[in-house]
Write a structure and sequence with these properties.
This protein is of the alpha/beta class. The chain has helices at about 1-40, 70-75, 85-100, 105-115, 125-135, 140-150, 160-170, 175-225, 260-290, 300-310, 345-360, 370-385, 430-435, 465, 475-480, 505-520, 525-540; strands at about 40-45, 50-55, 55-60, 65-70, 325-330, 360-365, 390-395, 400-405, 405-410, 425, 440-450, 485-490, 500, 505, 525, 550-555, 565. It folds into 4 domains: about 1-30; about 45-170, Serine Threonine Protein Phosphatase 5, Tetratricopeptide repeat (Alpha Horseshoe); about 175-225 and about 260-295; about 320-570, Rossmann fold, CATH 3.40.50.1460. A hairpin with a 2-residue loop joins strand 2 (about 50-55) and strand 3.
Length: about 575
Protein backbone atom coordinates (compact mmCIF):
# COMPACT_ATOMS: atom_id res chain seq x y z
CA UNK A 1 0.00 0.00 0.00
CA UNK A 2 2.83 2.33 0.92
CA UNK A 3 4.48 1.45 -2.40
CA UNK A 4 1.30 2.38 -4.32
CA UNK A 5 1.00 5.65 -2.37
CA UNK A 6 4.63 6.42 -3.17
CA UNK A 7 4.06 5.73 -6.88
CA UNK A 8 0.93 7.91 -6.86
CA UNK A 9 2.81 10.68 -5.10
CA UNK A 10 5.54 10.46 -7.75
CA UNK A 11 2.99 10.63 -10.55
CA UNK A 12 1.30 13.58 -8.85
CA UNK A 13 4.64 15.36 -8.45
CA UNK A 14 5.43 14.70 -12.13
CA UNK A 15 2.03 16.06 -13.24
CA UNK A 16 2.45 19.12 -11.03
CA UNK A 17 5.90 19.71 -12.51
CA UNK A 18 4.49 19.49 -16.06
CA UNK A 19 1.70 21.88 -15.14
CA UNK A 20 4.15 24.33 -13.60
CA UNK A 21 6.49 24.14 -16.61
CA UNK A 22 3.60 24.61 -19.03
CA UNK A 23 2.31 27.58 -17.07
CA UNK A 24 5.81 29.07 -16.95
CA UNK A 25 6.29 28.74 -20.72
CA UNK A 26 2.86 30.24 -21.36
CA UNK A 27 3.63 33.08 -18.94
CA UNK A 28 6.95 33.72 -20.65
CA UNK A 29 5.28 33.82 -24.04
CA UNK A 30 2.61 36.16 -22.71
CA UNK A 31 5.23 38.34 -21.04
CA UNK A 32 7.29 38.43 -24.22
CA UNK A 33 4.29 39.47 -26.26
CA UNK A 34 3.15 41.92 -23.63
CA UNK A 35 6.61 43.44 -23.27
CA UNK A 36 6.55 44.70 -26.83
CA UNK A 37 3.12 46.24 -26.30
CA UNK A 38 4.20 47.78 -23.01
CA UNK A 39 7.20 49.41 -24.71
CA UNK A 40 5.15 51.10 -27.43
CA UNK A 41 4.88 54.87 -27.02
CA UNK A 42 1.23 55.93 -26.71
CA UNK A 43 -0.77 59.12 -26.29
CA UNK A 44 -1.59 58.81 -22.61
CA UNK A 45 -4.14 60.80 -20.63
CA UNK A 46 -3.02 60.81 -16.98
CA UNK A 47 -5.58 61.36 -14.22
CA UNK A 48 -5.73 64.79 -12.63
CA UNK A 49 -3.80 65.57 -9.47
CA UNK A 50 -5.58 65.86 -6.13
CA UNK A 51 -4.72 69.25 -4.66
CA UNK A 52 -5.70 71.04 -1.46
CA UNK A 53 -6.66 74.68 -1.24
CA UNK A 54 -7.33 75.65 2.36
CA UNK A 55 -9.91 73.19 3.66
CA UNK A 56 -10.98 72.14 0.16
CA UNK A 57 -9.67 69.47 -2.16
CA UNK A 58 -10.00 69.52 -5.91
CA UNK A 59 -8.82 67.50 -8.89
CA UNK A 60 -6.91 69.15 -11.71
CA UNK A 61 -7.68 68.48 -15.38
CA UNK A 62 -6.29 65.31 -16.89
CA UNK A 63 -2.83 65.73 -18.41
CA UNK A 64 -1.79 64.46 -21.86
CA UNK A 65 1.71 63.02 -22.22
CA UNK A 66 3.62 60.69 -24.51
CA UNK A 67 4.93 57.68 -22.63
CA UNK A 68 5.10 53.92 -22.93
CA UNK A 69 1.93 51.90 -22.56
CA UNK A 70 3.36 50.19 -19.50
CA UNK A 71 4.22 53.47 -17.78
CA UNK A 72 0.80 54.92 -18.65
CA UNK A 73 -0.95 51.93 -17.13
CA UNK A 74 1.17 51.99 -13.96
CA UNK A 75 0.35 55.68 -13.44
CA UNK A 76 -3.36 55.08 -13.87
CA UNK A 77 -3.55 56.72 -17.29
CA UNK A 78 -5.85 56.07 -20.20
CA UNK A 79 -4.79 55.15 -23.72
CA UNK A 80 -6.11 53.25 -26.71
CA UNK A 81 -4.56 49.81 -26.68
CA UNK A 82 -5.50 48.26 -30.01
CA UNK A 83 -6.38 51.19 -32.28
CA UNK A 84 -3.23 53.26 -32.47
CA UNK A 85 -3.78 53.89 -36.20
CA UNK A 86 -7.06 55.74 -35.59
CA UNK A 87 -6.21 59.45 -35.49
CA UNK A 88 -9.43 60.24 -33.64
CA UNK A 89 -8.31 58.35 -30.55
CA UNK A 90 -4.96 60.14 -30.54
CA UNK A 91 -6.60 63.53 -31.05
CA UNK A 92 -8.96 62.89 -28.14
CA UNK A 93 -5.91 63.00 -25.86
CA UNK A 94 -4.40 66.23 -27.18
CA UNK A 95 -7.22 68.42 -28.52
CA UNK A 96 -8.57 69.76 -25.20
CA UNK A 97 -5.13 71.06 -24.21
CA UNK A 98 -4.49 72.28 -27.77
CA UNK A 99 -7.74 74.23 -27.83
CA UNK A 100 -6.79 75.72 -24.45
CA UNK A 101 -3.63 77.13 -26.05
CA UNK A 102 -0.94 74.65 -25.00
CA UNK A 103 1.80 74.88 -27.68
CA UNK A 104 3.07 71.32 -27.24
CA UNK A 105 -0.45 69.90 -27.52
CA UNK A 106 -1.09 72.05 -30.61
CA UNK A 107 2.08 70.71 -32.21
CA UNK A 108 1.12 67.13 -31.39
CA UNK A 109 -2.32 67.70 -32.91
CA UNK A 110 -0.66 69.07 -36.04
CA UNK A 111 1.63 66.05 -36.26
CA UNK A 112 -1.33 63.67 -35.94
CA UNK A 113 -3.08 65.44 -38.82
CA UNK A 114 0.10 65.48 -40.91
CA UNK A 115 0.84 61.79 -40.39
CA UNK A 116 -2.73 60.78 -41.10
CA UNK A 117 -2.44 57.73 -38.79
CA UNK A 118 -3.99 55.20 -41.15
CA UNK A 119 -5.92 57.71 -43.27
CA UNK A 120 -5.13 60.47 -45.75
CA UNK A 121 -3.04 63.25 -44.14
CA UNK A 122 -4.88 66.53 -43.56
CA UNK A 123 -2.14 69.07 -44.27
CA UNK A 124 -4.51 72.02 -44.02
CA UNK A 125 -5.45 71.12 -40.45
CA UNK A 126 -1.79 70.42 -39.62
CA UNK A 127 -0.89 73.88 -40.94
CA UNK A 128 -3.47 75.54 -38.67
CA UNK A 129 -2.24 73.84 -35.50
CA UNK A 130 1.44 74.28 -36.34
CA UNK A 131 0.87 77.99 -36.93
CA UNK A 132 -0.90 78.42 -33.58
CA UNK A 133 2.05 76.86 -31.75
CA UNK A 134 4.68 78.50 -33.96
CA UNK A 135 3.31 81.96 -33.27
CA UNK A 136 3.82 81.23 -29.57
CA UNK A 137 7.52 80.63 -30.29
CA UNK A 138 7.41 76.82 -30.01
CA UNK A 139 10.44 75.75 -32.03
CA UNK A 140 9.25 72.26 -33.00
CA UNK A 141 6.08 73.72 -34.51
CA UNK A 142 8.11 76.41 -36.29
CA UNK A 143 10.28 73.77 -37.91
CA UNK A 144 7.29 71.60 -38.87
CA UNK A 145 5.55 74.61 -40.37
CA UNK A 146 8.66 75.37 -42.40
CA UNK A 147 8.66 71.89 -43.92
CA UNK A 148 5.05 72.31 -45.09
CA UNK A 149 5.98 75.56 -46.82
CA UNK A 150 9.10 73.99 -48.33
CA UNK A 151 7.15 71.09 -49.84
CA UNK A 152 3.95 72.98 -50.61
CA UNK A 153 1.70 70.79 -48.43
CA UNK A 154 -1.55 72.47 -47.41
CA UNK A 155 -0.14 75.78 -48.63
CA UNK A 156 1.55 77.16 -51.73
CA UNK A 157 5.24 76.24 -51.76
CA UNK A 158 7.40 79.15 -50.61
CA UNK A 159 11.04 78.45 -49.80
CA UNK A 160 11.70 81.89 -48.38
CA UNK A 161 8.84 81.54 -45.91
CA UNK A 162 10.07 78.03 -45.09
CA UNK A 163 13.56 79.37 -44.54
CA UNK A 164 12.28 82.08 -42.25
CA UNK A 165 10.39 79.57 -40.09
CA UNK A 166 13.52 77.41 -39.93
CA UNK A 167 15.45 80.50 -38.83
CA UNK A 168 12.98 81.11 -36.02
CA UNK A 169 13.09 77.46 -34.97
CA UNK A 170 16.85 77.79 -34.90
CA UNK A 171 16.60 81.01 -32.86
CA UNK A 172 18.78 82.73 -35.44
CA UNK A 173 18.74 86.53 -35.98
CA UNK A 174 17.93 87.86 -39.44
CA UNK A 175 21.37 89.43 -39.77
CA UNK A 176 23.07 86.05 -39.31
CA UNK A 177 25.59 85.36 -42.07
CA UNK A 178 24.53 81.71 -42.24
CA UNK A 179 20.87 82.64 -42.61
CA UNK A 180 21.56 85.38 -45.13
CA UNK A 181 23.69 83.09 -47.28
CA UNK A 182 20.92 80.50 -47.45
CA UNK A 183 18.26 83.20 -47.85
CA UNK A 184 20.16 84.78 -50.72
CA UNK A 185 20.20 81.47 -52.59
CA UNK A 186 16.45 81.08 -52.07
CA UNK A 187 15.87 84.69 -53.11
CA UNK A 188 17.87 84.19 -56.30
CA UNK A 189 15.69 81.23 -57.22
CA UNK A 190 12.50 83.15 -56.45
CA UNK A 191 13.68 86.20 -58.41
CA UNK A 192 14.48 84.04 -61.44
CA UNK A 193 11.03 82.43 -61.26
CA UNK A 194 9.23 85.77 -60.90
CA UNK A 195 11.27 87.39 -63.69
CA UNK A 196 10.34 84.51 -65.99
CA UNK A 197 6.68 84.90 -65.03
CA UNK A 198 6.80 88.65 -65.70
CA UNK A 199 8.39 88.09 -69.14
CA UNK A 200 5.75 85.49 -70.07
CA UNK A 201 2.88 87.76 -69.10
CA UNK A 202 4.47 90.70 -70.92
CA UNK A 203 4.76 88.58 -74.08
CA UNK A 204 1.14 87.48 -73.78
CA UNK A 205 0.00 91.09 -73.40
CA UNK A 206 2.04 92.13 -76.45
CA UNK A 207 0.53 89.37 -78.61
CA UNK A 208 -3.01 90.14 -77.49
CA UNK A 209 -2.49 93.85 -78.13
CA UNK A 210 -1.31 93.12 -81.67
CA UNK A 211 -4.51 91.13 -82.27
CA UNK A 212 -6.55 94.06 -80.96
CA UNK A 213 -4.75 96.43 -83.33
CA UNK A 214 -5.42 94.18 -86.34
CA UNK A 215 -9.09 93.86 -85.41
CA UNK A 216 -9.42 97.63 -85.16
CA UNK A 217 -7.99 97.92 -88.67
CA UNK A 218 -10.62 95.45 -89.87
CA UNK A 219 -13.40 97.48 -88.22
CA UNK A 220 -12.14 100.70 -89.83
CA UNK A 221 -12.16 98.99 -93.22
CA UNK A 222 -15.76 97.84 -92.70
CA UNK A 223 -16.90 101.30 -91.66
CA UNK A 224 -15.36 103.00 -94.72
CA UNK A 225 -18.07 101.66 -97.03
CA UNK A 226 -18.72 98.89 -99.59
CA UNK A 227 -15.39 99.44 -101.28
CA UNK A 228 -13.48 98.38 -98.21
CA UNK A 229 -16.18 96.39 -96.51
CA UNK A 230 -14.19 93.21 -96.50
CA UNK A 231 -10.45 93.40 -96.06
CA UNK A 232 -8.43 90.68 -97.68
CA UNK A 233 -7.31 88.30 -94.94
CA UNK A 234 -3.70 87.32 -94.88
CA UNK A 235 -2.88 83.65 -94.76
CA UNK A 236 -2.70 82.38 -91.18
CA UNK A 237 -4.23 85.57 -89.77
CA UNK A 238 -6.40 84.46 -86.85
CA UNK A 239 -8.13 87.86 -86.86
CA UNK A 240 -9.63 87.27 -90.34
CA UNK A 241 -13.40 87.58 -90.56
CA UNK A 242 -15.20 84.24 -90.90
CA UNK A 243 -16.33 83.41 -94.44
CA UNK A 244 -19.96 83.27 -93.33
CA UNK A 245 -19.70 86.93 -92.37
CA UNK A 246 -17.94 88.08 -95.57
CA UNK A 247 -19.56 90.95 -97.46
CA UNK A 248 -20.65 90.39 -101.07
CA UNK A 249 -20.31 92.89 -103.92
CA UNK A 250 -24.00 93.69 -103.50
CA UNK A 251 -24.13 97.22 -102.07
CA UNK A 252 -27.37 96.40 -100.27
CA UNK A 253 -27.06 92.88 -98.90
CA UNK A 254 -29.64 91.33 -96.62
CA UNK A 255 -27.98 90.92 -93.23
CA UNK A 256 -29.38 88.82 -90.38
CA UNK A 257 -27.90 88.71 -86.87
CA UNK A 258 -24.98 90.82 -85.68
CA UNK A 259 -22.95 92.72 -88.22
CA UNK A 260 -19.30 91.81 -88.85
CA UNK A 261 -18.19 94.98 -87.10
CA UNK A 262 -20.20 94.06 -84.00
CA UNK A 263 -18.51 90.65 -83.93
CA UNK A 264 -15.08 92.23 -84.19
CA UNK A 265 -15.93 94.74 -81.46
CA UNK A 266 -16.91 91.83 -79.19
CA UNK A 267 -13.59 90.11 -79.92
CA UNK A 268 -11.71 93.32 -79.10
CA UNK A 269 -13.61 93.64 -75.82
CA UNK A 270 -12.71 90.06 -74.87
CA UNK A 271 -9.04 90.56 -75.74
CA UNK A 272 -8.86 93.84 -73.84
CA UNK A 273 -10.42 92.12 -70.83
CA UNK A 274 -7.75 89.41 -71.06
CA UNK A 275 -5.06 92.11 -71.32
CA UNK A 276 -6.44 93.83 -68.22
CA UNK A 277 -6.41 90.54 -66.32
CA UNK A 278 -2.86 89.75 -67.38
CA UNK A 279 -1.75 93.29 -66.53
CA UNK A 280 -3.18 92.87 -63.05
CA UNK A 281 -1.44 89.51 -62.63
CA UNK A 282 1.81 91.04 -63.89
CA UNK A 283 1.44 93.90 -61.41
CA UNK A 284 0.91 91.40 -58.58
CA UNK A 285 4.02 89.47 -59.62
CA UNK A 286 6.06 92.66 -59.87
CA UNK A 287 4.84 93.64 -56.40
CA UNK A 288 5.85 90.23 -55.08
CA UNK A 289 9.22 90.60 -56.82
CA UNK A 290 9.76 94.01 -55.24
CA UNK A 291 8.80 92.61 -51.84
CA UNK A 292 11.65 90.07 -51.80
CA UNK A 293 13.76 91.19 -48.82
CA UNK A 294 17.32 92.21 -49.47
CA UNK A 295 19.38 91.56 -46.36
CA UNK A 296 22.84 92.47 -47.59
CA UNK A 297 24.72 92.95 -50.79
CA UNK A 298 26.48 89.76 -51.99
CA UNK A 299 29.87 91.42 -51.54
CA UNK A 300 29.24 91.95 -47.84
CA UNK A 301 28.19 88.34 -47.31
CA UNK A 302 31.22 87.07 -49.21
CA UNK A 303 33.51 89.19 -47.10
CA UNK A 304 31.94 87.96 -43.89
CA UNK A 305 32.22 84.33 -44.99
CA UNK A 306 35.84 84.87 -45.88
CA UNK A 307 36.54 86.18 -42.40
CA UNK A 308 34.68 83.25 -40.82
CA UNK A 309 36.63 80.73 -42.85
CA UNK A 310 39.99 82.12 -41.85
CA UNK A 311 42.29 79.93 -39.82
CA UNK A 312 42.75 82.46 -37.02
CA UNK A 313 42.00 80.37 -33.94
CA UNK A 314 39.81 77.32 -33.55
CA UNK A 315 36.20 78.17 -32.70
CA UNK A 316 35.55 74.59 -31.63
CA UNK A 317 38.49 74.38 -29.24
CA UNK A 318 36.43 75.04 -26.13
CA UNK A 319 33.15 73.70 -27.44
CA UNK A 320 31.40 71.03 -25.38
CA UNK A 321 29.72 68.40 -27.55
CA UNK A 322 28.39 66.29 -24.67
CA UNK A 323 28.70 62.53 -24.20
CA UNK A 324 28.37 60.13 -27.13
CA UNK A 325 26.37 56.89 -27.11
CA UNK A 326 25.70 54.34 -29.83
CA UNK A 327 23.17 51.53 -30.10
CA UNK A 328 24.35 49.23 -32.89
CA UNK A 329 21.97 46.51 -34.12
CA UNK A 330 23.06 43.81 -36.55
CA UNK A 331 20.66 41.02 -37.57
CA UNK A 332 22.09 38.23 -39.72
CA UNK A 333 20.69 34.89 -38.49
CA UNK A 334 16.95 34.95 -39.11
CA UNK A 335 14.69 32.18 -37.83
CA UNK A 336 12.04 32.30 -40.53
CA UNK A 337 13.69 34.20 -43.38
CA UNK A 338 16.82 34.10 -45.50
CA UNK A 339 19.96 34.88 -43.50
CA UNK A 340 22.11 37.90 -44.33
CA UNK A 341 25.88 37.73 -44.77
CA UNK A 342 27.24 41.06 -43.60
CA UNK A 343 25.25 42.81 -40.78
CA UNK A 344 27.16 41.19 -37.93
CA UNK A 345 30.56 42.05 -39.44
CA UNK A 346 29.31 45.55 -40.27
CA UNK A 347 28.19 46.49 -36.78
CA UNK A 348 31.19 44.94 -35.04
CA UNK A 349 33.55 47.04 -37.16
CA UNK A 350 31.44 50.20 -36.85
CA UNK A 351 31.18 49.78 -33.10
CA UNK A 352 34.94 49.44 -32.86
CA UNK A 353 35.54 52.65 -34.85
CA UNK A 354 32.97 54.65 -32.89
CA UNK A 355 34.40 53.51 -29.58
CA UNK A 356 38.09 53.73 -30.38
CA UNK A 357 38.24 56.75 -32.67
CA UNK A 358 35.32 58.89 -31.51
CA UNK A 359 34.90 57.98 -27.85
CA UNK A 360 31.37 56.57 -28.08
CA UNK A 361 29.93 54.37 -25.35
CA UNK A 362 28.77 51.52 -27.56
CA UNK A 363 26.13 48.84 -27.05
CA UNK A 364 25.98 46.16 -29.74
CA UNK A 365 22.93 43.94 -30.27
CA UNK A 366 23.52 40.91 -32.47
CA UNK A 367 20.61 38.89 -33.88
CA UNK A 368 18.09 40.68 -31.67
CA UNK A 369 14.39 39.93 -31.30
CA UNK A 370 11.72 42.60 -31.32
CA UNK A 371 11.58 42.53 -27.50
CA UNK A 372 15.35 43.02 -27.22
CA UNK A 373 15.40 45.90 -29.71
CA UNK A 374 12.49 47.72 -28.08
CA UNK A 375 13.93 47.21 -24.59
CA UNK A 376 17.29 48.60 -25.73
CA UNK A 377 15.68 51.69 -27.28
CA UNK A 378 13.45 52.25 -24.26
CA UNK A 379 16.39 51.87 -21.84
CA UNK A 380 18.06 54.83 -23.51
CA UNK A 381 15.61 57.10 -21.69
CA UNK A 382 17.36 56.50 -18.39
CA UNK A 383 20.88 56.57 -19.85
CA UNK A 384 20.90 59.82 -21.82
CA UNK A 385 21.07 63.42 -20.60
CA UNK A 386 20.00 66.62 -22.32
CA UNK A 387 23.39 67.45 -23.88
CA UNK A 388 24.18 63.92 -25.07
CA UNK A 389 24.47 62.48 -28.56
CA UNK A 390 23.02 59.19 -29.77
CA UNK A 391 23.75 57.19 -32.90
CA UNK A 392 21.45 54.26 -33.70
CA UNK A 393 22.78 52.01 -36.45
CA UNK A 394 20.55 49.24 -37.80
CA UNK A 395 21.63 46.56 -40.28
CA UNK A 396 19.23 43.80 -41.24
CA UNK A 397 16.09 43.00 -43.18
CA UNK A 398 13.53 45.74 -43.76
CA UNK A 399 10.06 45.74 -45.28
CA UNK A 400 7.18 48.03 -46.21
CA UNK A 401 3.40 47.89 -46.07
CA UNK A 402 0.64 50.11 -47.39
CA UNK A 403 -1.20 52.12 -44.73
CA UNK A 404 -4.04 53.93 -46.45
CA UNK A 405 -2.45 56.21 -49.03
CA UNK A 406 0.96 55.97 -47.38
CA UNK A 407 3.80 53.44 -47.23
CA UNK A 408 4.90 52.33 -43.76
CA UNK A 409 8.41 51.01 -43.17
CA UNK A 410 9.59 48.34 -40.73
CA UNK A 411 12.76 46.89 -39.23
CA UNK A 412 12.58 43.10 -39.10
CA UNK A 413 14.08 41.45 -35.99
CA UNK A 414 15.43 37.90 -36.16
CA UNK A 415 12.13 36.41 -34.92
CA UNK A 416 10.09 38.19 -37.61
CA UNK A 417 7.94 36.20 -40.01
CA UNK A 418 8.09 36.82 -43.76
CA UNK A 419 5.65 39.35 -45.26
CA UNK A 420 2.78 39.87 -44.93
CA UNK A 421 2.70 38.45 -41.37
CA UNK A 422 3.90 41.45 -39.34
CA UNK A 423 3.40 40.21 -35.76
CA UNK A 424 6.99 40.85 -34.65
CA UNK A 425 7.91 43.65 -37.04
CA UNK A 426 9.14 46.94 -35.56
CA UNK A 427 7.36 49.87 -37.18
CA UNK A 428 9.10 53.10 -38.05
CA UNK A 429 6.44 54.95 -36.11
CA UNK A 430 7.34 53.04 -32.94
CA UNK A 431 10.97 54.08 -33.42
CA UNK A 432 10.28 57.75 -34.15
CA UNK A 433 7.93 58.10 -31.19
CA UNK A 434 10.68 56.81 -28.91
CA UNK A 435 13.12 59.29 -30.46
CA UNK A 436 10.71 62.07 -29.55
CA UNK A 437 10.90 61.06 -25.87
CA UNK A 438 14.69 60.84 -25.60
CA UNK A 439 16.44 63.59 -23.68
CA UNK A 440 19.50 63.51 -25.97
CA UNK A 441 20.13 66.77 -27.80
CA UNK A 442 21.34 65.15 -31.01
CA UNK A 443 20.23 61.83 -32.52
CA UNK A 444 21.30 60.29 -35.82
CA UNK A 445 19.70 57.09 -37.11
CA UNK A 446 21.66 55.20 -39.77
CA UNK A 447 19.68 52.36 -41.32
CA UNK A 448 21.21 49.89 -43.75
CA UNK A 449 18.13 47.93 -44.76
CA UNK A 450 15.55 47.76 -47.51
CA UNK A 451 13.03 50.63 -47.50
CA UNK A 452 14.88 52.35 -44.64
CA UNK A 453 14.07 55.76 -46.13
CA UNK A 454 10.45 55.30 -45.04
CA UNK A 455 11.58 56.18 -41.52
CA UNK A 456 10.98 59.81 -42.58
CA UNK A 457 9.08 61.64 -45.31
CA UNK A 458 10.49 65.05 -44.36
CA UNK A 459 12.46 67.15 -46.85
CA UNK A 460 16.15 67.88 -46.72
CA UNK A 461 15.76 71.20 -44.93
CA UNK A 462 17.30 74.18 -46.61
CA UNK A 463 20.11 74.78 -44.15
CA UNK A 464 21.62 71.37 -44.89
CA UNK A 465 23.15 72.65 -48.12
CA UNK A 466 25.08 75.24 -46.16
CA UNK A 467 26.65 72.82 -43.72
CA UNK A 468 29.01 71.33 -46.25
CA UNK A 469 30.52 74.66 -47.31
CA UNK A 470 30.72 76.79 -44.16
CA UNK A 471 33.54 76.16 -41.71
CA UNK A 472 32.80 75.70 -38.02
CA UNK A 473 32.67 79.34 -37.00
CA UNK A 474 31.64 80.35 -33.51
CA UNK A 475 28.28 81.49 -34.91
CA UNK A 476 27.69 78.22 -36.74
CA UNK A 477 28.49 76.09 -33.69
CA UNK A 478 26.43 78.28 -31.39
CA UNK A 479 23.25 77.82 -33.36
CA UNK A 480 23.78 74.18 -34.26
CA UNK A 481 24.70 72.95 -30.80
CA UNK A 482 21.87 74.78 -29.07
CA UNK A 483 19.19 73.11 -31.19
CA UNK A 484 18.12 69.49 -31.01
CA UNK A 485 18.40 67.26 -34.04
CA UNK A 486 16.74 64.07 -35.19
CA UNK A 487 18.40 63.05 -38.44
CA UNK A 488 18.48 59.93 -40.59
CA UNK A 489 20.78 58.47 -43.19
CA UNK A 490 19.31 55.51 -45.05
CA UNK A 491 21.41 53.25 -47.24
CA UNK A 492 19.02 53.19 -50.18
CA UNK A 493 16.03 55.46 -49.71
CA UNK A 494 12.69 53.70 -50.11
CA UNK A 495 14.13 50.85 -52.18
CA UNK A 496 15.87 47.49 -51.71
CA UNK A 497 19.59 47.55 -50.89
CA UNK A 498 22.58 45.25 -51.39
CA UNK A 499 23.80 42.91 -48.65
CA UNK A 500 27.27 42.43 -50.09
CA UNK A 501 29.71 43.97 -52.55
CA UNK A 502 31.88 45.81 -50.06
CA UNK A 503 34.81 43.48 -49.29
CA UNK A 504 33.13 41.57 -46.47
CA UNK A 505 30.70 44.37 -45.69
CA UNK A 506 27.63 45.75 -47.40
CA UNK A 507 28.24 48.43 -50.03
CA UNK A 508 26.88 51.09 -47.69
CA UNK A 509 28.65 49.88 -44.53
CA UNK A 510 31.97 49.63 -46.37
CA UNK A 511 31.76 53.31 -47.38
CA UNK A 512 30.56 54.33 -43.89
CA UNK A 513 33.47 52.47 -42.25
CA UNK A 514 36.10 53.87 -44.60
CA UNK A 515 34.94 57.49 -44.28
CA UNK A 516 34.69 57.49 -40.49
CA UNK A 517 37.88 55.49 -40.16
CA UNK A 518 39.91 57.97 -42.20
CA UNK A 519 38.33 61.17 -40.87
CA UNK A 520 40.54 63.40 -38.71
CA UNK A 521 38.36 66.51 -38.41
CA UNK A 522 34.99 67.41 -36.91
CA UNK A 523 32.47 66.06 -39.38
CA UNK A 524 28.79 66.99 -39.51
CA UNK A 525 25.98 64.72 -40.65
CA UNK A 526 25.57 66.48 -44.02
CA UNK A 527 29.31 66.26 -44.64
CA UNK A 528 29.32 62.54 -43.91
CA UNK A 529 26.40 62.05 -46.28
CA UNK A 530 28.01 64.13 -49.03
CA UNK A 531 30.94 61.69 -49.02
CA UNK A 532 28.82 58.55 -48.58
CA UNK A 533 26.35 59.03 -51.38
CA UNK A 534 28.67 59.11 -54.44
CA UNK A 535 30.68 56.11 -53.19
CA UNK A 536 27.58 53.95 -52.66
CA UNK A 537 26.16 55.00 -56.02
CA UNK A 538 29.38 54.18 -57.86
CA UNK A 539 29.92 50.79 -56.19
CA UNK A 540 26.32 49.66 -56.56
CA UNK A 541 26.14 50.65 -60.22
CA UNK A 542 29.38 48.74 -60.81
CA UNK A 543 27.47 45.51 -60.06
CA UNK A 544 24.44 46.51 -62.13
CA UNK A 545 22.24 47.87 -59.32
CA UNK A 546 21.49 51.47 -58.43
CA UNK A 547 21.44 52.10 -54.68
CA UNK A 548 21.09 55.74 -53.67
CA UNK A 549 21.30 56.74 -49.98
CA UNK A 550 19.29 59.67 -48.67
CA UNK A 551 19.55 62.07 -45.77
CA UNK A 552 16.48 63.50 -44.04
CA UNK A 553 15.25 65.02 -40.85
CA UNK A 554 13.05 62.78 -38.71
CA UNK A 555 10.59 65.58 -38.29
CA UNK A 556 7.88 64.32 -35.96
CA UNK A 557 10.31 63.37 -33.22
CA UNK A 558 11.47 66.66 -31.72
CA UNK A 559 13.82 67.92 -34.42
CA UNK A 560 14.76 71.62 -34.15
CA UNK A 561 17.14 72.08 -37.11
CA UNK A 562 20.27 71.08 -35.21
CA UNK A 563 22.99 68.77 -36.50
CA UNK A 564 25.03 65.72 -35.51
CA UNK A 565 28.82 65.93 -35.22
CA UNK A 566 31.48 63.22 -35.27
CA UNK A 567 34.40 64.47 -33.17
CA UNK A 568 37.58 62.36 -33.33
CA UNK A 569 39.19 62.07 -29.91
CA UNK A 570 42.57 62.46 -31.62
CA UNK A 571 41.52 66.00 -32.61
CA UNK A 572 42.20 67.00 -29.02
CA UNK A 573 38.76 68.52 -28.48
Amino acid sequence: MAHIITRLAGVFTFLVAIAINTATVEAQDTTAQGSVSDLQVVDCLLPGQVRRLGQSRYITARRPIMTTAGDCRIRGGEYTEFDRADYRTALAVWLPAAEAGDAEAQTNAGEIFEKGLGTTPNYGAALIWYRKAAEQGYSRAQFNLGTLYERGLGVEADKLTALNWYRKAWDMPEDSVIYQTAARDAQDQQRAQLESEIRNKSNQITLLQSQVDRLKVSIDALQQGPEGAQPTPSEGDDTAIPAAQAQTSDPSPTVTGPSPSDDLIDQIAQLESMIAGLSEEKSDVETEYAAIPVFRQPEAVTADLASLNSNEGDSTKNTSFGQYYALIIGNSDYRHMVDLETPQLDVEKIGSILEGRYGFSVKVLLNASDVEVMHAINDLNSELDEDDNLLIYYAGHGSQMEMGDLQAGYWLPVNADPPPRDTHWISNEAITRHLGRLKAKRVLVVADSCYAGLLSDAPDYLFLSQSGSINYSAEFMKYKLNRSSRLMISSGGNSPVLDNGGTGHSVFASAFINILGANEQIMSGPQLFSQLRPVVLERSEAVGFRQEPDFKTIKISGNEAGDFFFVPTSAGI
